[in-house]
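Why does this matter for the project? Reviewers at the last site visit asked to see concrete outputs rather than summary tables. In response, this paragraph embeds two records directly. Each consists of the residue sequence and, immediately after it, the corresponding structure tokens. Nothing has been edited or filtered.
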Amino acid sequence: MDAHELLGRRGFVVGAGSALLAGGAVTGAEAAVVDGPLPDFHPALKERLTFPLAWGTSPIRDFRAWRRTARATVEEHLLVERQDRVPFAPEYTGRTQGHEYTRELVTVSLTRYERVRGALLTPPGDGPFPAVLLLHDHGSKFDIGKEKLVRPWYDDTRLASAQAWADRYFSGRFAGDELARRGYVVLCLDALGWGDRGPLAYEQQQALASNFYNLGSSLAGLMAREDQRAAAFLAGLDRVDARRVAAVGFSMGAYRAWQTAALSDHIAAAASVCWMTGLKEMMVPGNNTLRGQSAYWMLHPGLARHLDIPDVASIAAPRPMLFMNGGLDTLFPAEGVRAAYDKLRAVWGSRHAEQRIRMKTWPELGHVFTHAMQDEVVSWLDDVL
């Protein structure tokens, strides 16, 4: 039996006809635990991480050769094979024609395992248009995925939930709709466990991830492959200028944005808001990463023996990249953000492309993607695409 047969229609691992994942809400006590058990030799393990494949440390001196080797190393650690030969076979439904842009739902095969539904927004006119692959966050909120960034016109229940999320993190604005108003084709799809592919319960994440590992696969690797394929699908649309496709995301979506830029040549630029750090600086007592659960969506086993987090993002160099963080964001300690930014700056500098990377800290903000931050991202996209 292969992984396809073990994936249920909503993405949950099943066996012998019954779900292996139990439901239920996380308790207040569980939610408060942010320090996972660390062994006494944890500092020794961190010291052994020297990231020998990082650009500038690696013995490979030709940058293009380094990029090929580093990308191949990341792809090997995804534990999910490439899906290039799987037909997308798109199906379009729910189309509504507005004055500012057209909205429709599209269902595609990103992998051979299941079909994925997303929102597709298109500005008026003939095109081809620049485009944005918009990647949603985690937030431990699974009833909505694509709806966090694109206003759901097809479901009033999700609209209420989505508006509350937008009010909390996005100054009440749906970033996807704003991008479409400003002339961009926008594609936003549900990651496994969210929206139409969920909803997952908080404590199910670890079980789902372990089942993937038991199957010789990876939850984070599947998400990376799906995002890679989504970029190819978007770039291949007749309405899109394939030379002007960007990836944009907040929080986990920011991680997905720079990761997709590293793994896909279809991405010409990427904007990542509130997800960049050095690994060692993030793996400290009190950090959310130690809780487990959400960490599995961004965990490629063994990759840290070769590359640090900003080293992976550097595979995208020298393409334009924008990184933003909030100075009050407790998820990403300031030391980790500085360490990562220093590494990124050095890589783009080595390519004489300092003007193509922008890194900004908003000292008064936490883990948010506000109206002002969104406006700056769109202005930056207008400049670089």
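We now turn to the second protein, recorded in exactly the same manner.
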Amino acid sequence: MGMFKVIEGGRGQAVHMAERSEEGGRPSRDDVRREAARRLNESGYHPSRVREFATGVPMRASLKYLSLQIDFAAESLSRLDPIPEDFRSDGYWPAG
């Protein structure tokens, strides 16, 4: 696995880029799921979910809706044959 340094807002964050499947370098379903997880993680969903669990205060409805949209996009992309090479493009994913 390769390691790249992504700089966001002046703060560095290490990101592992998964290697592509052996099918001629085409993206796999796992690649799409990892992209969905990355987008969900960047949305702030997970800390909000933990906060909801710990305090009982519901998370914003918009975050729940975004999670559903990301899951739907990932499932739809995963079913394509072949999966587009540019599946990480923002055009395939909901805006957060």
